[in-house]
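For the sake of transparency, this paper describes our internal protein records without simplification. Such a record has a labelled line for the sequence and another for the backbone structure tokens. Nothing more is needed to write down the fold, since each code stands for a local backbone conformation. For reference, a complete record is included directly beneath this paragraph.
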Amino acid sequence: MSGTDTEAKIGPASCAGCGSHYCQDQAKTMSKSHPIADSAEHSKAERVYRELRRRIRGLELQPGSRLQKNEIAVEFGVSRAPVSEAIAWLAEEGLVDVFPQSGSFVAPIRPEDVREALLIRTGLEVEAVRRVAQQADGQLLKRLDENLDAQEAAIRDNDMAALDDLDEAFHATIIGALDSPRAQRLLDSARALLDRPRFHALPEDGRPHATLSEHRRIADAIRTGDPELAGAAMRVHIAMVARAIERDSEESEKRAKSKSSR
């Protein structure tokens, strides 16, 4: 079993006030991705799914944490059925491991999943930004500029959670300009596997400011209308994200080895 037997105590739900653009976008696509006959049960399962996913993504629920269905059901005021459905969706995304007769656990961060997700993100987002650069209007550029100003404020306030949400919203704004729900869902799935290592690496020295600079170069490239320049800026950004994740992973391994040798 890859999960440990650590039990996670689920805290108060806060998704409704988190301001995450992912939560809003995902809510719109869940009905298409996971149809449920009973709309009321669908709504309950979706609410549980979004909040558990937020906690896993933000590392509030650590890899290996046990998901206790009874406790989750009590917290959200639902039966076990919506909880089981939500956990099944998370398992499809690779965020939860379900072991029959043993339970459900937050999945470990697997290097192979990270590599695959980076491959998908690179191919999808580079092509997306190339197309967006050729059709961007003033409204899109205004939204990107407002997002970048908010990112700068988050860095100034040392609010990494807000910066992470704004990072996600920046990329969602670009892919959303294509008006391609399938592309959006594919990107969401890839980001689901990258959220935890990316969030963990974000506070790395200099990385927040570097992230903002890379995002500004992407926005400036879109502004020029040059698809090749925009594609190159996005490719460099994702490559830098990959390097930050790799460095953070290496440091984590060193700390783990040092602790085990004591």
User: Anything to note?
Assistant: The first strand starts at residue 66 and ends at 67. Confidence is low (pLDDT under 50) at residues 1-37. The two ends are 25 Å apart (CA to CA). The first helix runs from residue 21 to 33.
